[in-house]
Amino acid sequence: MSSSLSNRLSHIFSHLNSERLKIVVTRDLGPDVMTILYSESAKYEIVLWPGKNACDRKWLLDNVRDALALIVLVTDRIDAEVLDAAGSQLKVVSTMSVGYEHISVPDLAKRNIRLGYTPDVLTDAVADISIMLALMAGRLAKETTLFVSEGNWPTYSWAPFAFCGSQISATPSSPKRTAGFLGFGRIAQATLRRLLGFGFTHCVYTSNPFSKPSPERDSELLSSFGAPLHSLKRVSLDELASESDVLFVLTPGGDETKGLINEAFLKKMKKTAVLVNSSRGTVVDSDALAKALKEGWIWGAGLDVIAGEPNVAGDHALVREPRCVVLPHIGSATVQTRLDMATLAVQNALAALNDQDMPASVNVTL
Amino acid sequence: MSSSLSNRLSHIFSHLNSERLKIVVTRDLGPDVMTILYSESAKYEIVLWPGKNACDRKWLLDNVRDALALIVLVTDRIDAEVLDAAGSQLKVVSTMSVGYEHISVPDLAKRNIRLGYTPDVLTDAVADISIMLALMAGRLAKETTLFVSEGNWPTYSWAPFAFCGSQISATPSSPKRTAGFLGFGRIAQATLRRLLGFGFTHCVYTSNPFSKPSPERDSELLSSFGAPLHSLKRVSLDELASESDVLFVLTPGGDETKGLINEAFLKKMKKTAVLVNSSRGTVVDSDALAKALKEGWIWGAGLDVIAGEPNVAGDHALVREPRCVVLPHIGSATVQTRLDMATLAVQNALAALNDQDMPASVNVTL
């Protein structure tokens, strides 16, 4: 028996004699999901951070001791200090998020702790917000809603080209539309599926430069979208910039994608094109985008994420730009999706506690 | 030869002797479209209102005299006074709009003047704005963009259910979605086509109560939308209210539809449902809607039109309602669509001048 396993067992047996095994949860996940957890109360003690805001670090360090499972959010930094405070019996960290930048994966690996996360369930919600941002940027939603809320409508004189946007959808007189994707995973494909109803006929994408191009996969994907889509192909960044009518940034963050959307890229885009970022703020160079919008290199932009968030003040150049819609990172924020994410986070934790396959886990081997 | 025809001919011949035949245009339609008109300058004198705002009534009455064709906008009231000022040689009034409430059709009929309008070309632009409004209302776009622009993001503490919207699209755990339409013409059908990519599975609609229900037509329509749509049926107003996840008002205005969306209707809707009006403001009772939003009978609303517009001040109850997005009637406002509308208005006028079939005309027989 390995010493780590024997440590773990002795911890468990000491608990069985004294108190129930502990699941620590760093935020109230709402009545529907907490009910699932509390239904396990006979077996596990549920220890819940009582606050409404992010879990206090000191509370976590104090309460994580002897926990078997830890259910966390993006607001919790899970590092060696937390894991050491927990003790070697900790079996699983389960985060209610698709990203896990807040968790030190090597430190989990060293301790044989499993990691659960919540991909896929947010695909539809993020695809929805991507389409919403494309339409809002194209149709001048910021300028026009402000016009009404500031009380200017009564004095407005209708004119044939006033408030005219760039039309996202194809029309009988303008039947070709090209969707561009920087990153072409599940959310991008769900976004493309939505665009077909808007008459999009072509798709170009760029992918991880270290992955091999696969015309076979492209051809399979193309036929999965059916007749409305005429072509789907992997292209260079230059072609992505110049061919897209709407460009969706749906790629992971990090050093490899940092600032890929820069001045050079934006200058190659169509003047009527719209840029949407609903993945990671760092991919888009904010200064370059502000310049592009001010000087009319592109039509507009819709951002659910922005470099440096949440430290984005009201006078941030992009927040003040009339052609730029900025949302506070609400891509997955729907009641339905957040319930699915919370449920999956709980299911991941419970599966790991029962030594079963987790519905969605990250491989944390060293 | 009828006396009206002989009058007209004598007018025309007198003009041929003196000056070119006249086309009066009440607004600059932009360089692309005016070029089409000016290319007819050898045959016709083009008389254009020189202002940037709505055409002055006195200018119109003075200049319309002896015109053969009159190209107008929704800002021009075309009544007996204008038609009398024109003279009996006037062959056609062509409006750059799908609505023609600003034109006295009986007065045209009495004088055998043809009427051109611009339906269909705006279908896609209005369907786009309908989807945009549904997403904006569902995803709290007003509240969240304001949160950012007012500089609150830096102090925001992420929480699992903060800023959570009502999800428009279907998800694996919630796979049924019903689109409801009050009025089911071309724009409604184009909107439904877009919704299929969002996973909508069911469609209910109510139609002109004087038209006969046709299950055969419904069945044909259903198959035209393909496999993703499971059912499509005409229902009563009560069923429309209670079954719709998103309800689109896309019906003509006027007395027959005035206030159809009232307190009784809104009370029957789902609490998670969203209401979109992109047709005529009069169909929705504004006081009832404000009450419904304030008291949470429905999730949110997106309005491109509103009763009493453009006299809608910044302190209008619906403009101030956080869950209500209000746009200044920009449904057809895209560069592409407005160019198509202006082009069609010119084509209608030229066709009538050449005694040909007009691409899109209203039947004005008495």
TrEMBL record, chains A, B:
Keywords: Oxidoreductase. Residues 23-363 form the D-isomer specific 2-hydroxyacid dehydrogenase catalytic domain. InterPro entries: D-isomer_2-hydroxyacid_DH, D-isomer_2_OHA_DH_cat_dom, D-isomer_DH_CS, D-isomer_DH_NAD-bd, NAD(P)-bd_dom_sf. Residues 131-331 form the D-isomer specific 2-hydroxyacid dehydrogenase NAD-binding domain. Pfam families: 2-Hacid_dh, 2-Hacid_dh_C. GO terms for molecular function: glyoxylate reductase (NADPH) activity; hydroxypyruvate reductase [NAD(P)H] activity; NAD binding. Coiled coil: none annotated. GO terms for cellular component: cytosol. Belongs to the D-isomer specific 2-hydroxyacid dehydrogenase family. This is Glyoxylate reductase.
